[in-house]
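User: I'm writing a tutorial on reading structure tokens. Could you give me a worked example: one chain, its sequence, then its tokens, then a sentence or two explaining what the tokens reveal?
Assistant: Sure. Here is the example chain.
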Amino acid sequence: MAVKLTTSDDDLDEAHEINVTPFIDVMLVLLIIFMVAAPLSTVDVNVDLPASTAQPSQRPDKPIFVTIKPDLTLSVGDAQVSQDGLAAALDAASGGDKNQRIFLRGDKTIAYGSVMDMMNLLRKAGYLKIALVGLDAGQAPPSGTPASSAP
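And here are its predicted structure tokens:
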């Protein structure tokens, strides 16, 4: 026979419910922090685009280079072309294959808008695979060396 020696009226029933209010509070605070921090992380910064530390990707056997010279003249490979004749020159160089990658290189002194205009011309001609060519940051030529001598 079992006897209960202590009696207490303070028996608490176990609560099988999870209080999610603190969890919701923490999530709302994090949401507010990210909403405030996201616009601050996109700040206008002066950058020097021609040099890159990225690992060079595989080059095709015969790449097609489109070059924008300092005087804004264009060349496909070694042949100088006009903006109107760019699509025809690219079709001739690629054999009509619009899936071939076009390597775009521009002089360091040209405006960024000129590069974007060239990319728009390439897209308009149907060439959507465009790679920007830059110098390796460790091998950048001194300032006075022409950028056209680099690959």
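What the tokens reveal: The first helix runs from residue 21 to 40. The beta strands are 51-52, 64-68, 74-76, 79-81, 102-106, 130-132, 135-136.
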